[in-house]
Amino acid sequence: MSHSNIYSLRVLTCVLCLFVQRTAFGLPAVFNPHSPQAESIRSLFLLVLAVAAVIFVLVAGAATAFMFRYRHRAGDPDTEPPQIYGSQPIELAWTLGPFLTVLVLALVVVRSVVQARPEAPHDNDLGIRVVGHQWWWEVEYPEQGFTTANEVVLPVSNVDAPEPTHVQLESADVIHSFWVPRLNGKTDLIPGRVNSMWLEPKRAKIYHGQCAEFCGTQHAHMLLTVKAVSTDEFAQWVANQQEPAVEDPAVAEGRQRFMSLACADCHRIRGTAANGEFAPDLTHLMSRGTIVAGLLENSRDNLVAWVSNPQAIKTGSRMPDMRLEHEDVEKIVDFLETLK
Ligand code: CUA
């Protein structure tokens, strides 16, 4: 295989990866929307694809047909064919044709943008705030009074009585982009600016997403999930998140180490002295399925590995290698595991 072939193959694989987006079943995520916004984006994409396909077939077909029909044959005279200038019908056709095509596509794009556009939320809409950090997502539920990280939990939106969630998007450092392909298009999180979007999942399930704007070395490890649950389950989850952290006397040693070994300077654990603002809120750490912005499953082994040396797992992460003694790590993880 030549170099250029290998290169094309790589480009093709990358493009395919973009479409597949970690969906486990059959259809690539962008073709398998679960919200009105993502549906409107898919319809637009399919329409543009169809129009482009028709144009491609017409142009490539005509070019191929002409190559055979008008090729040079033995016995043809060696003179140029008659040259035609200024044919009004032809010029009209190739001006109006593209103009009308572009006009129709532009109108349809505007319609899709309006459909997906964030209107001002109503009083009873659930509103959340997502802040992009290098390299994790802060997820705040301002009205409910708590903050979590990397895993957005929302009530599923009934088709008959829609319950959309309004998401306010901000950044703490550089430009990030919030992208959950099955629920909506990408929206950037820009420092000094507030953007917004709607999330309106139609089915109770977990949707995967990721940061879609290069934001530094660990951009690829800035995953997020949106978990759509029933209204009852959501109310239960909120009630649990609103509670301050569990205080278990059995892990007092671990808690004391967490508070004294600088962890508390960056992390917040509501109901304790830990009040940091630079790192994920750990009040209900164990209610999350993953740690390190979706990179690792939330298990004891992974917590131990992460606390021991974050830099070995996520180079460049803002959490430094504290060079803790193994015993300190074990005690701290004992404490973290009580934060249900
Ligand atoms: Cu955040 Cu890429």
Explain this structure:
The chain is α+β, with helices and mostly antiparallel strands and 340 residues long. Helices cover 38% and strands 17% of the residues. It has a 5-stranded mixed sheet with strand order 3-2-1-5-8, with no helix packed on it. Strand 1 and strand 2 form a beta hairpin. Helix 5 crosses helix 9 and helix 7 packs across helix 9. It starts with a helix and ends with a helix. 28% of the residues are buried. It binds dinuclear copper ion. The site of dinuclear copper ion has 9 residues, from loops.
Ions, cofactors and other bound molecules: dinuclear copper ion
Distance between the termini: 54 Å
Helix content: 25-40%
Q: For the largest sheet, list the strands in their spatial order.
A: 3-2-1-5-8
Q: How much strand?
A: 15-25%
Describe the global form: elongated
> How does the major sheet shape up?
5 strands, mixed
Number of strands: 12
Unreliable stretches:
20-25
Number of helices: 9
Calculate Rg over CA atoms.
27 Å
Task: Give the helix/strand class.
Answer: alpha+beta
Return the average pLDDT rounded to an integer. 88
